């Protein structure tokens, strides 16, 4: 026999000698006779926690903190204190679901390990990942490492849960398949000339189709360059140097030829200008000679015209004098006629005398 005390705020199970069990709450002082007292564990959850309570009948209950619960083995299977989830903007949680995706290996942003990224809060904001596709062979058996950056965004959580367990693994596998398909169809030099096309989503058909099927959208893929073996790179550098020298020589030759063509065109233009100038001089001389000849002819014409006018005036004056004389003679003859003088005899005598004088 012994005295047992249950403090205020405590609970205990009293096991009777007949097999019955009863719950006792404090404050209380018990005299135990052929019985046993077992205090119950008090489990507490603070304001950012909650209690996950599993009952013996199989159902589960959650109590948001701050709260307390006594672990009663008669009705409880377990009571656990768990942290509450704080969801920021663009975050979501799937109840009773834990995600396990490929995650970045330690000390590497481009290598991924299955099951490395375990979480319960799903980030729905746009995100990106770096990835290196290793050991990609070209058509002429050159071994390359191709570096890309994938930008993606989740669009449909329900579709993602139904269609995939690890979308990152899907991205990596499809991206690798697209890059290998693009590269293996080209020679090393042809790949170098067209590698910028890896920035175009049109060359990532499998990645785009798979992302849509699992509820994601790949918005962009950035080609970050490639890496070849040192020996291959050295050969390529030598080839590039040779091509560059040839191109520079070709461009220098073209520039020289262009300069010669330019000089020749200038010379032809200068000769043409000189020829045009000489031709213009001849034309000017001809025009001047023509002007002089026309002026000389005009002067001669004016002189002849003046002579003709003088002769004409002289003849007109003579004719006028003759006309006056004739008029005077006619008047004289009319007077003689009026005086009854024989005009025939008079004219004969006049002409005979005139001839005699001459």
UniProtKB/TrEMBL annotation:
It comes from the Eukaryota. This is Uncharacterized protein.
């Amino acid at each position: 026999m012994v005295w047992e005390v249950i403090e205020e705020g405590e609970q205990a199970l009293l096991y009777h000698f007949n097999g019955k069990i009863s719950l006792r709450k404090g404050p209380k002082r018990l005299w135990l006779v052929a019985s046993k007292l077992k205090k119950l564990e008090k489990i507490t959850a603070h304001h950012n926690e909650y209690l996950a309570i599993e009952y013996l009948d199989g159902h589960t209950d959650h109590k948001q903190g701050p709260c307390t619960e006594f672990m009663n083995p008669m009705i409880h299977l377990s009571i656990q204190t768990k942290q509450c989830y704080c969801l920021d903007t663009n975050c979501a949680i799937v109840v009773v679901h834990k995600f396990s995706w490929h995650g970045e290996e330690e000390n590497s942003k481009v290598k991924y390990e299955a099951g490395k990224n375990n979480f319960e809060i799903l980030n729905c904001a746009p995100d990106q990942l770096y990835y290196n596709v290793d050991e990609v062979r070209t058509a002429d058996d050159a071994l390359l490492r191709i570096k890309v950056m994938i930008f993606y965004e989740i669009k449909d959580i329900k579709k993602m849960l139904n269609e995939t367990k690890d979308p990152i693994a899907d991205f990596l596998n499809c991206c690798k398949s697209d890059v290998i398909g693009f590269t293996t169809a080209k020679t090393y030099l042809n790949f170098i000339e067209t590698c910028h096309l890896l920035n175009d989503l049109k060359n990532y058909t499998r990645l785009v189709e798979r992302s849509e099927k699992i509820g994601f959208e790949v918005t962009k893929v950035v080609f970050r360059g490639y890496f070849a073996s040192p020996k291959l790179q050295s050969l390529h550098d030598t080839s590039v140097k040779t091509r560059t020298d040839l191109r520079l020589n070709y461009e220098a030759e073209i520039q020289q030829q262009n300069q010669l063509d330019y000089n020749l065109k200038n010379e032809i233009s200068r000769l043409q200008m000189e020829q045009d100038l000489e031709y213009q001089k001849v034309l000017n001389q001809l025009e001047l000679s023509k002007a002089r000849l026309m002026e000389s002819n005009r002067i001669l014409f004016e002189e002849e015209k003046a002579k003709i006018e003088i002769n004409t005036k002289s003849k007109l004056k003579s004719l006028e004098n003759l006309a006056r004389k004739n008029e005077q003679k006619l008047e004289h003859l009319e007077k003689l006629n009026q005086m009854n003088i024989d005009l025939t005899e008079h004219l004969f005598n006049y002409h005979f005398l005139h001839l005699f004088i001459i």
